[in-house]
Structures are given as structure tokens and as C-alpha cells.
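User: Could you write out the 3D structure of this protein bound to 1,3-dihydroxyacetonephosphate? I've included everything you need below.
Assistant: Certainly. Input first, then the structure.
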Amino acid sequence: MRRKLLIGNWKMNSSLAANTILLNGIKAGAGKTGCEMAVCVPAPYFAQCQAELTGSNIAWGAQDVSTHDIGPYTGEISVAMLRDFGCRYAIVGHSERRMNHGETDQVVAEKARRAIVNGITPVVCVGETLAQREAGKTAEVVGQQLDAVLSAIEPDDLWNIVIAYEPVWAIGTGKTASPQIAQEVHAILRAKLSARNSAAASGIPILYGGSLRPDNAREILQMHDIDGCLVGGASLNASDFLAIAAAAS
Ligand code: 13P
């Protein structure tokens, strides 16, 4: 049995005051769900998460990380800085970063490598656009995105990685991939991971993300290769996030 993992991606939302309500709400219900939970928050809130979540069973992390260790990189945040604030995870290669910040597969791969080498678990996002899906290119696109990461890391690094399949057309649109479509892609991803390190691959959480809500999470999460979710909008509401956690467990 693979562990179930639910990660909230707050994106550029919330505030100090709203975070307190949200984190307390999640903490209050976390014990009742049988899945691991984490929140990936804007960097200014790492310290708040560390203060509020230390000692709870909820982890926290970043939404991105620099490809550099230190130096003249204005605005960037290093993996060591994430560690200073107890972050366990760093999302890398979210489609919003690939599209809005021109992140290539190679940049994403380097971010994932650097996170792993420094003891942070990367949550590597892959996913196709609607045009790519309609052109029958889904397997090729997600395959290339994952291959870039796999060639930058060692097979043993697969013991410390999370993959998230987020079809771009399902993010924030209200359109979720059907359970069958998602399972098909997850199985492709797991086969690729398995070819690199089969022992590790059978335990790697492959999360689904894209317009998940309490009312559609359960059917997606029932699929064999779907081990949890990466949730955007619904992670900003404690009761929705907990309801998805309950569906995952
Ligand atoms: P939504 O759940 O808001 O569609 O966002 C998904 C996502 O991008 C999570 O990383």
C-alpha cells in the first residue's frame, strides 16, 4: 500500500490573518484523516507555518526553488533557505511557472536535483495543454517532462520524490480529468519511474491535480496509480481541504 498524500498549493493567495484561520482549521481536523498532508505556501509565510505546524502531522513547503545555491540572484530563494524554515517539500515545474516564467524541462530538472541533493522532496509537476491532448501528444509531453528530471538525478534519488500530474486544461477551470484519463497518464509515469528504479517506483506518490473538490475527489482517488492530490483553490478552505483528505484516506 502506497502512502496517500494531499498537498495544498496556495499559489499567491491568503494573508497572515487568513493563514491562521486556515492552518488552525486544518490542524483541528487533521487527526481524523488517514493521509499525509502538507501545504505549499508563499515564501513569506514559511516562518508562520513553522510556528503553527511544528509538532502537528502537517508538513509545509515551497512553490518553487532556485537552481542556484547562493549569490547575485535577486528575488530567488535557495534550497538552504527552505531548510532554515523546516520546509519538507518544494513544488517544481508547476505549469504556471513553466508558462509565466519560461521554465524549461532542463530548469525544472535542475530544481528537482538540487532539492533532492539538499534533502528537500521535490513535487515535480508534469502535464499537457489542451492543444497537446487534442493532438494526441499527452504521453509524449509528460514523458519528456519526466525524462528530463530522471536524467538529472540518480536512480537512488527516486526514494525522495513526489510526482504530480496536472493537466494544464484542468487547472482552475472546473474541468477535471476523468478518473480513466488520469489513471492512464499516472500508469505511464509510473512505468517510466519503474524503468529507472522499480523498487522505489512502486512507492512514489503520484498525485493528481486540477479542479479537485470534495465532490469529485473520491472517484479520482480510487484509481490504482493515483496516490493523492495537489490541490489549488480548494486548499484555501479548511473544510474543503479536509473533505478531500477524507476522500483520499
Ligand atoms: P486548482 O485545484 O485550483 O485547479 O489548481 C490545481 C493546481 O494547480 C495545484 O497545483
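Strands lie at 5-9, 36-40, 58-62, 89-92, 121-126, 162-165, 206-208, 228-231.
User: Perfect, thank you.
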